[in-house]
Specification:
Length: 135
Amino acid sequence: MIPRRTIVFAFTAGTFLAGVLPVLAKSRHSNWIRMFDTDNDGTVDLAEAKKAASALFDKLDRDHDGTLDKRELARRLTPKEFAAADPDHDGTLTKDEYLAVVEQRFTAADSDHDGTLDAKEFNTKAGQALLRLLK
């Protein structure tokens, strides 16, 4: 038989988590917005996303050759996505090619077509795909 104290604790913890987890999920995306939102308007526009992506590109380009290969991208793109993003099929992405993918993902995540992304849009599948290219 399960002690009453264990049942009460489990119920209390479950009730607490049910209320806190959605808030934590939302705040997690709000943190990303704050990180990329250089004009502090509470949203991320394409220029801000590209600025973050450009900085990440430079960080990931460990050999400083101006390109990223599949290894340097560290699973940010699937092989199929990488092939589509590599129009010259040289096995690497230049910064312009990388930023083109960022722009495509930004557009896909911008569900209300207002040119900015909020926490709700970052929480979508398309928003998560974009985040992989920004962080």
